[in-house]
Specification:
The protein is of the alpha/beta class. It contains twelve helices and 17 strands. It has one domain (47-227, 279-470): Alkaline Phosphatase, subunit A (3-Layer(aba) Sandwich), CATH 3.40.720.
Length: 472
Amino acid sequence: MECGNYSRFSSRREFLSRATCGLGLAALHSLAAETPRSFPNFAPRAKRVIYLFQSGGPSHLDLFDHKPAIEDRFDQDIPASVFGGQRVTGMVAHQDRFPIVPSMYEFRRHGQSGRWLSSLIPRTAAIADEICLIRSMHTEAINHDPAITLLQTGSQLPGRPSLGSWIDYGLGGANSNLPAFVVLNSLPANGMPDQGLLSRLWSAGFLPSRHQGVQFRTGADPVPYLSNPPGMTREQRRDQLDGLAALNRRQHERAGDPEIETRIAQYEMAFRMQASVPELADTSNEPDHVHALYGEESRRAGTFAANCLLARRLAERDVRFIQLYHRGWDHHGGLTEKLPALARDTDRASAALVLDLKQRGMLEDTLVIWGGEFGRTPYGQGAVKPQSYGRDHHGRVFSLWMAGGGVKPGHEHGASDDFGFNVAENGVHVHDLQATILHLLGIDHERLTFKFQGRQFRLTDVHGRVVREILA
């Protein structure tokens, strides 16, 4: 009996085995009904996104958020009126008090915008008039995994599609030879990445699996198993894929499973990537002045600098969403030893990426984002000294910057209170950030939905507003 012919079932066993055919066809029709047909909703400001995600929680107080009001308050307790009912993590729950620790790093004004920035990020300070700094980000999550998951998928609970997958689902790819969503993972120069990163952060969740991110790795084969094995020619691989596609199409006619079509498309993409990826990943042909801009670390595969350069090359080839993860920012102790190393890792290359895109005429339609899942507390963790301290997780307020892609250059949005503890004005929630990113790409975040388990889901759940104050 062919799939779709339900005139009779000879047995319970046959019913159970054949029922999946009908479910597959139903899923196929559902997918067709849910696939966006009208995106973008309006003229986009950006064509692509490069998200430089700093996993672990960079200290806004030591990098971006100058707090002169607490400079003379070392070892004084955070006032109860400021602390409020803030939840604390298990790392500081045992502390009897929460002593204020001012930043030991010098802040100065930079650019025509007069932006206060730390001495730890001189290259970022040099592009102060190119970036839009949000000083009022906030999140409910106080631990890494739920906080990262919320920023990347719109929910603290695992299983939702990632930001890049939603964008791929809504807009599709612009280069048939490369995935629309690429993930790069860099290793800190100090070799201590702290937290792990789970592949579900770039998963398609309940969206069709073709929208999941493709991770590029370091080494001769950026994508595992992409190269042909010894003895197999490209022509032989083509013949093999043609035969496999014929078998898959036949199976799809029987079962109607949309994932079979995804499998065919992924095989074809992999075949095209065999030709496109090696040339893309080979940065040896970049001029010396480009490597000098990003720093000598850009010649070492897997470094943040090398991945920033690779991100620019991906953007040049119209990859829609490029997610770069950099880990090691979880500084509960030894912040004054570890933070400078992480800042050196990222400062030069992040600024170089913005400048490189600008000189190529690409910054105006490429949105660059730099930030982590939360910030750090203004109080110290454990024993503290004026020039030796650590800070705990802090989601009530933190900083993040954006550049290009339709945001105001040299603009500063929002503010924290005098202690860097709470939002003082113009708070920006994680869902607001996500809604704004989609808006810049021409997508109405309330209209980009997918029906799953009887409910319409979206990246911003039932929240989120576009932060129009930062739009150029």
